[in-house]
Design brief:
heterodimer, A: about 400 residues, alpha/beta, 13 helices, B: about 375 residues, 5-stranded antiparallel β-sheet, 4-stranded antiparallel β-sheet, about 30% helix, BRE (chain B)
């Protein structure tokens, strides 16, 4: 939605000086108005509307030039004399003329016949279709002449009609400005313009934009570039992750398919359900290392967590530990192994009572020396043999377990 | 609005502008309705309040136009009296005349007292064109205007006021004011002289108000200048017909014209007939004529005698004689009534025919049969 607003801005002292100069004139007066025109487009985004564009057209009145007499720059039928206008303007440029004014005492606040004709001709002569006409109409309110009023209005033509434009008088205390100034204050002082031009290059670049703004724009561009690179990397990694996930899904699908096939095969060939496979190597190792320890050879535990010796594996799997896992035997007691190997290769352990841990190294060494003579596979140990000392109050002896 | 007499306005206006205003307020007659001069109100000055008077240089001019009164502001400058005036056209803010087509503005001469009046007349002409242009908002009313424009009797004597379109109802109204081409020159002068005011030009204006664009509510009204109205027997003497439903002006206006013309003819004819009647009675009763109206020929008094009995006979001839019968009043010269007046009696019923000419009427009267029969036959004629 687009909205268009036009305003006339005039400072208090400019308007006041115009009024003061002519209020005591003994006839109607007229003159030219100088200033500048600015157009601004504002886009407001609110909760209810996404796009609300406002065009603000501001005409700043900066100065007036009075004519010494009436009908000086136009004739009886309102034809404008451009030479006379230039003469009135003297050093000022025609481009600075934004309108003209007239003061008519004791008349209606309405544009007259000749003023309309002059206005149209002046618009054509100055090539300014936004030309304004300021009308001041002083009059007496009381019959005694004690109170006078001065009404003023600015008119602008729209085709054949003349509409009044709101006038904002900027005084020292601005009452209508509640937010930041969006436009700089206009000034026609020559000295002011000279000073500004002298230091302008420190703040503005050649195209009229602020230096800082250019730098910030450059930095923003760099940030945008870096962001693009990071985004690209994220994209690539995301694509890789996506590919890997796809591969994993394929593999899982293949595994499931294989399992299904195996399941179907076993269902076709075997009547008994598949049994969990025994770790035969571990079984043979334990039998080799702990020949009499049925508790260690069992694969079942009761609810209290104690091994059940009746579930020991008694099957001879026919695995020669010495050739299959030679390191197992090398990491066991070296003398004992030698002794064992020397006496027929069989190994036997004699159960030794548990000792305190501080005596373990010595006792172990002693145990090792004692077992050099003979090691025999003990019978089935009972649970009590393996009950820790903290439960049955006996001191713990050093374990017969091999030390790696 | 402070209405003021012309003299007051002329006293307050700036001396340099006085001649211009004088011709306006004294001789200013514009448009069809020229019975009254232009009026001036709201005289003000463009000078400061400390300037000694008279220094007024701006005023409102009231101009009759098509049954309305235009109120235009005319603005001079007392300090620059040679400059031409400026105008504010009241409520007609859209009226913008072409300045190059105003000769008295282009060649403004402050020394010519008639310059302002002529300029106002030229502006009125352009205002008329502006109003005619506005009729284009209604095809019906535009047709009425175009049809009248084609008739040379009305094209130059027409004023149109097109009202502003009502933004609520959409209704558009207009008023046509036409000067009827009726010849009043033959109306006897005595009829036109008998007015207290300056009669001005003899004119008959027909005002037709269209209250809506489709011409379903049309109100005609006839305006006569005071002398004509008096000559025709007053405002009630003439009644125009109502505007026919579905009719148009090009048919209605000639109808009203004819009615008015017939009326005028009646009046003229009546005058001549009365004159003839009086002349005939003068010739037949020469010595018996006491007095008669030598201008309007409306009265005649005879002194008659029968067998040494004298009596007066007053003959009153009406305006529309011979259509209307004359009234005879018998008056005794001897006897008075109780109130001290001479005994008299009015007689209206007697043998009469409008087809008799004046000579015939006088002859019948002279033969004595008419008056004697009336005199003798009336039992009331007793002292």
């Amino acid at each position: 939605m687009e909205d268009s607003n036009s305003y006339i801005r005039v400072s208090g002292f400019v308007l006041g000086s115009l009024m003061f100069q002519h209020l005591n004139s003994d006839s109607d007066v007229e003159g030219l108005i100088l200033g500048e025109t600015k157009a601004e487009e504002r886009s407001n985004i609110t909760d209810s509307q996404i796009d609300n564009i406002q065009f603000e057209h501001t005409i700043n009145i900066q100065k007036h030039i009075s004519c010494r007499k009436l009908n000086s720059f136009y004739n009886r039928i309102g034809e404008v004399n451009q030479d006379e206008i230039r003469h009135i303007l003297s050093n000022y440029k025609e481009e600075n003329v934004i309108g003209w004014y007239k003061q008519r005492r004791n008349t209606d606040q309405q544009i007259t016949f000749r003023e309309q004709v002059v206005h149209e001709n002046l618009k054509r002569a100055l090539s300014n279709h936004e030309l304004i006409f300021l009308l001041l109409t002083p009059s007496e309110i009381t019959t005694s002449g004690s109170t006078h009023k001065l009404e003023y209005a600015v008119f602008r033509s729209h085709g054949s009609q003349y509409c009044s434009v709101p006038v904002l008088v900027s005084n020292l205390g601005l009452l209508e400005e509640q937010d930041y100034w969006r436009l700089s204050a206009s000034c026609s002082s020559v000295n002011y313009n000279h000073a500004v031009r002298k230091h302008r290059s420190k703040f503005f670049s050649s195209d009229g934009s602020l230096h800082e703004v250019d730098e910030i724009n450059d930095m923003n561009n760099s940030l945008q570039g870096e962001l693009k690179i990071a985004c690209k990397k994220v994209e690539e990694s995301e694509r890789l992750v996506e590919k890997l996930l796809a591969d994993v899904s394929d593999l899982r699908r293949m595994v499931n398919d294989r399992k299904q096939e195996l399941g179907e095969i076993s269902a076709d060939g075997a009547s008994t359900p598949a049994q969990p496979q025994e770790n035969v190597l571990l079984c043979e190792v334990i039998k080799t290392l702990f020949p009499g320890a049925s508790l260690l050879q069992t694969q079942a535990l009761n609810f209290q967590g104690f091994p059940l010796p009746e579930f020991c594996c008694s099957t001879d799997h026919g695995i020669d530990i010495a050739t299959t896992l030679p390191l197992i035997l090398s990491h066991t007691l070296p003398k004992a192994r030698k002794g064992r190997l020397g006496r027929g290769g069989g190994t036997s352990w004699r159960k030794r009572p548990l000792r305190e841990s501080s005596e373990v190294p010595k006792r172990r060494k002693g145990m090792l020396e004692e077992t050099e003579e003979s090691l025999s596979v003990s019978g089935s140990e009972t649970e009590e043999d393996l009950i820790p000392a903290n439960q049955n109050g006996n001191d713990l002896d050093v374990s017969n377990s091999p030390v790696f | 609005m402070n209405s003021m007499s012309p003299e007051v306005a002329l006293n307050r206006i700036s001396p340099e502008l006085r001649p211009l205003l004088c011709s306006v307020v004294r001789n200013g007659r514009v448009g069809l309705d020229s019975t009254n001069c232009l009026r001036v109100t709201d005289l003000k000055t463009g000078c400061t309040s400390l300037t000694p008077g008279p220094c007024c240089d701006r005023f409102k001019l009231h101009i009759p136009y098509a049954g309305e009164t235009l109120k235009w502001d005319i603005i001079f400058n007392a300090r620059d009296p040679e400059l031409p005036p400026d105008f504010i056209f009241g409520e007609d803010a859209e009226f913008l005349p072409e300045p190059s087509e105003l000769p008295h503005l282009v060649q403004w001469d402050a020394g010519d007292p008639e310059c302002l009046l002529q300029l106002v007349k030229e502006l009125i002409q352009q205002y008329h064109q502006y109003q005619c242009q506005r009729l284009r908002e209604s095809s019906r009313l535009l047709f009425e205007y175009d049809s009248l424009l084609e008739d040379p009797n009305y094209s130059r004597s027409m004023e149109i006021y097109a009202g502003h379109k009502n933004s609520w109802t959409g209704e558009f109204s207009a008023r046509f004011l036409l000067k009827l081409p009726v010849d009043f020159s033959n109306i006897p002068v005595y009829l036109l002289k008998d007015t207290t005011l300056d009669p001005g030009e003899d004119v008959a204006l027909l005002s037709v108000s269209f209250e809506d664009a489709e011409a379903t509510q049309v109100f005609p009204k006839l305006y006569l200048s005071p002398s004509i109205e008096h000559a025709l027997g007053g405002s009630s003497a003439l009644h125009i017909p109502a505007f026919p439903s579905g009719g148009c002006l090009i048919d209605y206006v000639p109808q009203v014209c004819q009615l008015l013309t017939n009326k005028v003819q009646y009046v003229i004819q009546g005058y001549h007939k009365r004159r003839e009647y009086i002349a005939a009675f003068l010739s037949h009763f020469g010595m018996g004529v006491v007095e008669y109206d030598a201008e309007g020929f409306t009265k005649l008094t005879l002194l008659l005698m029968w067998k040494d009995f004298c009596f007066l006979v007053h003959v009153d001839l009406p305006l529309y004689f011979p259509r209307d019968q004359p009234t005879l009043t018998f008056q005794s010269v001897y006897h008075f009534t109780n109130s001290g007046q001479l005994y008299s009696q009015v007689q209206k019923s007697y043998p009469y025919s409008p087809r008799w000419d004046g000579n015939e009427m006088a002859k019948r009267a002279k033969e004595g049969k008419l008056i004697l029969d009336l005199y003798l036959g009336d039992a009331l004629f007793t002292p």
